[in-house]
Amino acid sequence: MCSWVPKAQYLVFTSVYELEHEALDALKRKFSFPVYTLGPTIPYFNLGDESKVATTHSDLNYMKWLDSQPKASVLYISLGSFLSVSSAQMDEIAAGLRSSGVRFLWVGRDKASQLQEGCGDGGLVVPWCDQLKVLSHSSVGGFWSHCGWNSTLEAVFAGVPMLTFPIFWDQVPNSKKIVEDWKIGWRVKREVGWQNLVTREEISGLVKRFMDLESIEVKEMRKRAKDLEEVCRGAIAKGGSTDTNLDAFLSHISQSRRR
Length: 259
Hints:
Elements: E1 11-13, H1 21-30, E2 35-37, H2 57-67, E3 74-78, H3 87-100, E4 103-107, H4 112-119, E5 123-126, H5 131-135, E6 140-145, H6 149-158, E7 162-164, H7 171-181, E8 185-187, H8 200-210, H9 216-236, H10 241-258
Parallel strand pairs: 1-2, 3-4, 3-6, 4-5, 6-7, 7-8
Helix pairs in contact: 3-4, 3-8
C-alpha cells in the first residue's frame, strides 16, 4: 500500500469517520491529498421501501417467523459466503444452539436442511436472507458473525451486539475492534484457527449469557451498540460526516474532470 498511495489523488474508505477517527486522522496527517470516509456502504436506503422486500416463499417465511418472535430474543447467525468453518465445528454449533434454548435464525447456505435437523425446532435455518433487513428487525438481539467488514458495518448500523467468530484476513482485526475498541461484542473463541474447536457446552453457555436481556453486562453492551447506531445514522444525515465527505468527493471528481 505504501508504495502506491503517494501517487493517489485521494483515498476513499467504506467506513464511518467517527468509528475510526484516530486512524483516519493519522492518514490525513500523513498524506497531502484528501481522505474521504463514505460509509457505511450498505443498502440502508432500501430499509424503508416495502417494494424492495423479498417476495419469494422462503423469504416471506423467515420474515414472518421473525415477526412472531419476542423483541430482541433471536440470535442471527451468518458465517460468511467465501470460507466457513469445519464440519465438526458446525456440528458443535448446532448442538450448542439446541442445548441453549435460545431462538435463532441461521444462514446455513447449502447445508440449511442438514443443520435444521441438527438444531431442532428452536430456530430457523435458511439458505439465504436479506441480512440488513434481518439485523434491523426488532426481534433480533444478537449477531454471531465471521466479522467480514460489510457484516460488521451492517450490525453497527442496526445497533446489534455481536458474537465474533473470525477465520482470517481482516476478520481478525475487525473482531478486535468489535470486542476491545467498541466493546459491543464477545469472542466465541479466544484463538483464531481451524484446529481450535469450540465445544457445544461452551457455545450453549456463551449464547445463553449473551442473549440474557436481564444481565447488567449485556445491557451495557447493548447500550453501546445502540450508541454506535446513532453515530452511523448521524453520519449519513444531512450535514453528517459521510454526507459532507460525499459532497466533497463528488466535487473533487468534478473539478478533476474539468482540468
